[in-house]
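Record minuted for everyone:
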Amino acid sequence: MRSVREARRKWGYVVGAGLLALCAAGWAAPAGAQSAATPEEYKIGFTTPLTGTNAPFGRAFAETARMATDDVNARGGVDGVKIRLIVEDTAADPKQGIAAFQKLVSVDRVPVVSSAWSTVIMATAPVADREKVLLINHGANAPSIRGAGKLLISFFPLADLDIKHLARYAATKLGKKRGAVMYVNNDTGRLNAKVFQENFEAAGGKIVAVESHEADAIEFGAQAAKMRAAQPDIIHIPSLVQEAPRIVKQFREMGIKAQFTSYSVAESKEMLSVAGEAADGLLYTSLAPPADQPGPKALIDRYKATYQKDPVATAYLMYVWDLHNTVLPEAIRYAKKQGWGYSGEAIRRAMLTQKTYDTKASGKTVFEDDGTVNKVVYLKRVNVKEKKFEYAATLD
């Protein structure tokens, strides 16, 4: 309860007040239907888990978005008009995500909402279409997000980009023949697993075991026993930040020697502290440049100086920063210049018309016509001895 109270105080949301405000607003007309006149401020909604098991990551996302917004406003905003970021809690839960979105739309009247977590994005996309509000995914990678809504932009690359390359690399470059998958039973895990399996087998490998687990699970002995019996030489783990390290640790404790692979959730302090030596050599995809490159390093240093702590899930933070510090301000400015006004439809049109953005932290961004992005895919390795995540290869 204390964490909930602290989150509400820090981020300025109160669930009860939000619900009352919704009633008072009478579920007003869509926020997307705004005039072409320049507003007094550009409101942008931001939904993220501030409570629940994913709160440490959700808070880091919100902190990065606030830092990016403050930076834009310090530069004069968008042609003299400042941006106001309004943050709401989803607890990474689809139903609460919809409630947070509706509050932002009906009470705060935002035409743009930035969000993450695949189940939240999928649940919210139809509501965004109905309300004519642009929904931007800054951190979910389920391939099903593509085409889930007409007013949905996926600024974060989807799993069928990086996992496809990873699976093929595992079979052709690493020479692995017997693959297995241990996935979290949600959209992210299921679809990530499907992409890996299809592409691994297409590249000449064979999937010999597939196991799953529920979110928030802590015991994986039963799955480990089945994996050990199947004798894979590589195990792909599309799980979650909290669960993946425990899976790695428990699988090694069961005597499994296979190469482990994952995606960007592997780059977390939990992987080092919880999995420990068991995680050494784990390979994972990253859709952001190595942290020692100028763009990422500048963001990490800025975060540390601002919040007096190390960032978590830095690859995701790079996307949050680039979206709120570069892409959205430029799209708002472009839409204004074209006389399109500030609406969800106008900002989506601007983003897909401009297409290419010089995003410093995550690397150059190119939007596809379907609202997804094309990015360079990096392969990184967990180095437990040196307590770092190091560059291994570029996948194409």
User: Anything to note?
Assistant: The chain has a mean pLDDT of 92.
